[in-house]
Task: inverse folding
């Protein structure tokens, strides 16, 4: 009997020990599951925080980019307005310069024009006997001065109206029609200016050199040298331009072109 009781007690103790082990194991599993849930929540929270930070950074960058684009658009609009203003001012300055040259040309022509000689009174004509002609009289130059003046004014008005191509054609036609006319040196000079306005410096230089070769003492000759120097500068011929400006000072020291040449040589 005592032996059976001892075995029964041993069995009970063993069962209780097993139950205690199972209880401890279950508690550990529950604690581990609880720990895994907390870790997952923490990781999710950290991921959410990082995502929000990245979104904030991206939003700020997009906002700054939009501001920069808007600023560039405003700057572009300002530059476009300034360019249009400068273009208008340049065209106005060119028009004023053309008007100035045309007005100056008219004044010089008035100075150059000589009044027709006054015919002698009838008494003097009666007192003078006409000797028999010893030879044929010198032929008078052909051409109508009034028509010549009108054609020259037409070409000059083309230039004044900024119709440069028409002016170039008209001046060239005039110089061919009146090669020895009183206005031909002026027309040749303006032909050189018209070619320069058309950005053809080679033909401009050629036209101005005709003035210098045929009419070196004409008032337009020093101005033609200034025109040649301007074209040489446009063609990056600095040495040639300097030589031409120095020629103005040597040959025409008292001309208005000499003052222009001095200013350019100082630069």
Result:
């Amino acid at each position: 009997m005592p032996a059976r009781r001892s075995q029964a007690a041993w069995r009970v103790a063993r069962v209780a020990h097993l139950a205690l082990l199972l209880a401890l194991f279950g508690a550990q599993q529950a604690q581990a599951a609880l720990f895994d849930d907390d870790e997952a929540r923490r990781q999710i929270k950290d991921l959410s925080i990082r995502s929000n930070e990245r979104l904030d950074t991206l939003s700020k960058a997009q906002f700054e980019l939009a501001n920069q684009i808007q600023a560039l658009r405003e700057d572009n609009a300002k530059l476009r307005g300034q360019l249009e203003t400068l273009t208008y001012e340049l065209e106005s300055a060119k028009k004023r310069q053309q008007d100035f040259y045309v007005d100056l040309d008219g004044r010089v022509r008035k100075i150059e024009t000589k009044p027709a000689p006054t015919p002698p009174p009838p008494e003097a004509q009666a007192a003078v006997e006409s000797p028999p002609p010893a030879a044929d009289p010198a032929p008078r130059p052909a051409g109508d001065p009034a028509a010549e003046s009108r054609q020259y004014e037409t070409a000059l008005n083309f230039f004044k109206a900024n119709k440069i191509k028409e002016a170039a054609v008209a001046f060239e036609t005039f110089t061919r029609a009146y090669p020895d006319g009183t206005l031909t040196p002026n027309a040749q000079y303006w032909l050189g200016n018209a070619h320069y306005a058309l950005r053809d410096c080679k033909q401009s230089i050629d036209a101005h050199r005709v003035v210098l070769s045929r009419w070196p003492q004409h008032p337009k000759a020093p101005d033609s040298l200034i025109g040649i120097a301007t074209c040489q500068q446009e063609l990056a011929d600095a040495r040639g331009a300097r030589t031409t400006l120095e020629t103005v000072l040597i040959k025409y020291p008292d001309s208005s072109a000499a003052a222009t040449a001095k200013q350019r040589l100082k630069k």
Notes: The chain has nine helices and no strands.
